[in-house]
Each structure stands twice: as structure tokens, then as C-alpha cells.
Predict the structure.
Amino acid sequence: MDRFLTAWFAVRQVIQAANFNHFHQAGLSATQFMTLNLLPVDDESIAIGELARRMNLKAATVAKTVDSLEARGMLTRVKSQTDRRVVLLRITDQGRTLQNLAAGQFRTHVSAIFHAMSPQDRESLICGLEGFVSVSGLNPARRDEVPEPRSSPQSVRR
């Protein structure tokens, strides 16, 4: 178990370092970057409440991040056509450009690390992770299976 946890935290550091490079270059905070990457890439929109649920944060916490991204022209707020009480978020062209650039750079970086591994190690990693998720009882394909929201991004790191 100790080896697993040590490896797990090391992998998280590798992923976070790759992400940090991309959002830092764009002048975004980690939370802004995560928010931008959870917005639908097409002309669809998402409710602030749904975005908060996916981020495992409270809507009030996410609203502050949304304010800053809106001020930078990365997203816009629109009223729902079916329920005027619901505020929807839609990514702008500027936000989509940054989202695509960062996602491409991140994927390239992680892909280089992944392909530096032997084919056997890659297959073992994939099988191990799939098995881990399988026995966890959580189905990542189901959006409704998300833990209780946290009140701040700092609590996510704990």
C-alpha cells in the first residue's frame, strides 16, 4: 500500500506540474484553468451549479472564478431559455482557443512520458488503473456520481 500511495502522489505531481506550466503561461490560476477545461467545447452551455458539482466545489466558490474568467473574455453568462432563474456559462472563442492550446500541449507532454514507457508497462498501467476504478464502485462515466462538494479549492488539495 505504501508503494502505491507513493507512486500515486508522484503521478499527481507529474500531472500537476504539466498542468501548471500551461495555465501559468496563460496567466490563469489552477482553478481558472480547471473551470475553463470543464466548459463544453462546442456551442453548448453549462449551468454554474453543474460546473460546481463537477469541480466538487460549492457554486458560490465557482462563481468567483467565473467572474474572473468572464472579465477576461474567456466565457459569457447567458440566461436559460427554459428557466430564467438558471445562469448558463458558454465558452467564448478566446476561451476555446486557450482551452484547445492548453489541452493539446498537456496531451503532448503526457503522451511523451507515456510513450517513453515500455509497451508492457503501459498496458500494465492501463489495466491497473481500470481495475482500480472498477472495484471502487464509482462509475466515472456517470456524472451523477460525484462526492460532496467542498467549499474551497484549497480543500481539494487536502
Residues 114 and 122 are 7 Å apart (CA to CA). Residues 16-157 form a domain with the Arc Repressor Mutant, subunit A fold (CATH 1.10.10.10).
